[in-house]
Design brief:
Bound molecules: hydroxy diiron-OXO moiety
Number of helices: 5
Structural class: mainly alpha
Distance between the termini: 34 Å
CATH topology: Ferritin
CATH architecture: Up-down Bundle
Order of helices and strands: HHHHH
């Protein structure tokens, strides 16, 4: 049986993951409006990953006999985006925020001596290393090309090759 503190914290994390999906969806919409279909594709896969992350927490709560409580997703994350660089910088910052959330959950699971939760969270610890690396690499690429239309086109093509 899952303890109340872990259940509440995991429910909050479901919201964080779905808010991440919502954030990336707003970014995908911007890329479509700019005709950057490779970046839009990259964001679509990112959104799908975030929903999968939320579902891992959702399933874990149920498997441990707990109750899932869905909460309102913040619309503050949905901005009027202005450029690919601004978007990927925001993505990188957002992933750093998610890493901090996961680290707090790991700490709580240890304080609560909830070993199944600690083991479950290890996947997310590893995943966050990848999430930060992926977004910061795109930031570097975009910084390198600056305002060059050809450069943005090349980055768009590269991101369009992202596999699931
Ligand atoms: Fe982007 O890793 Fe989940 O939120």
């Amino acid at each position: 049986m899952i303890g109340k503190k872990i259940q509440d914290a995991f429910n909050k994390q479901i919201n964080e993951e779905l808010a991440s999906a919502y954030l990336y969806l707003s970014m995908e919409a911007y890329f479509h409006s700019e005709g950057l279909e490779g970046m839009a594709h990259w964001m679509r896969l990112q959104t799908q990953e975030e929903i999968a992350h939320a579902m891992k927490f959702f399933n874990f709560i149920h498997e441990r006999g707990g109750t899932v409580k869905l909460q309102t997703i913040s619309a503050d994350l949905h901005k009027n985006w202005k450029s690919p660089l601004e978007i990927f910088q925001a993505s990188y910052q957002h992933e750093q925020h998610i890493t901090a959330c996961i680290n707090d959950l790991v700490k709580l699971s240890k304080e609560e001596e909830d070993y199944p939760a600690s083991v479950f969270l290890q996947w997310f610890v590893t995943e966050q290393v990848e999430e930060e690396a992926n977004t910061s690499q795109v930031v570097q690429m975009l910084e390198r090309v600056g305002d060059s239309g050809n450069g943005i086109y090349m980055v768009d093509q590269a991101l369009g090759r992202r596999g699931a």
